[in-house]
Amino acid sequence: MNNKLFVIPKPNPNAKLRLFCFPYAGGSPAIYMPWSSELHPEVELVLLQFPGRGARMGEPAYVEMQHKVDELLAHQAFLTEKPYVLMGHSLGSRVIFEVTKHLVENNAPLPRHLIASGSRAPHTASVKERIYDLPHDAFVEELYKLNGTPKELLEHKELMELLLPLLRADFQIAECYRAQATTLPCPITVFHGHDDIEISAEQLHGWQDLTEHKIDIHYFNGGHFFINQCRDEVLKTVNQVLSRIV
């Protein structure tokens, strides 16, 4: 697939299922890259690379959810050509909900499953203070507190100057986007960190409003970035979900 949006670390033309993985705010395909050799053998991993990162560093990062959705829908044929599952962490979870909602409206083939990791339900209001438009030093200080950006990167002034526009853009989407509640026909599995104080029980269980099926919630040790802290356990659970579909 010769397209900058999709990164396929280990192409598998005979795969029966594709898993599309969406990063959190400020994240890149590198988050999921190590998964490629440990996924179910009949699953092809496809990573999403939006503007502002990796090979697309020179492109302005999107500041609205609809921009991400529009680009994905422009490649709807590839997205839906095989049975597929969508997974996202944090902001990525809200992206997969929004794109699935549009696929329903387009009468397109739908994901067999959604895996929403580390995110409040997208129709619930965020109770966090907005940070994307803070002055430089205050914004960087908030990034330290969130503990999702490596400390060595935050302390590298030249790299941070390059990355700050991307981080601000992603946080703008994360903080300003709120979905209209829509009940999807797709099953949803929810991943949550035991110590994630950013998401209330009401926001977590709000995912139930968005599917015709009973949601399945899996809890992991760690905070908001348990996907990194509990990588092996998360991947094991992902494979369990996929094995029921392949």
Automatic annotation (TrEMBL):
The signal sequence is none
- Residues of the Thioesterase domain: 18-240
Identify the Gene3D superfamilies for this entry: alpha/beta hydrolase
Tell me where on the tree of life, at the top rank, the source sits: Bacteria
Q: What does the record list as GO biological process?
A: lipid biosynthetic process
What does the similarity note say? Belongs to the thioesterase family.
What name is this protein filed under? Thioesterase
Native species of this protein?
Pseudoalteromonas rubra
